[in-house]
Amino acid sequence: MKQVVHIIRKVEFEKQYIKGLQFELDYELSTLFDALTSNDQRQIDSSKKRLEEIHVELEAFHVFS
């Protein structure tokens, strides 16, 4: 029984984590758009780097499969 509860908690945690990453993805895309609009190269590079990190994390959960 404990194993089932543990698995359910893990799945729920993963769902919440993925949801948080998707919100962060939206935020970073918006930030990148603003940086591109204002030609802020430092922010463009920072956003692109974070977007790549988010993509890798989401790929680990097979979100992009």
Automatic annotation (TrEMBL):
Highest taxon listed in the record's lineage: Bacteria
Protein name per its UniProtKB record: Uncharacterized protein
Species the sequence originates in: Kurthia sibirica
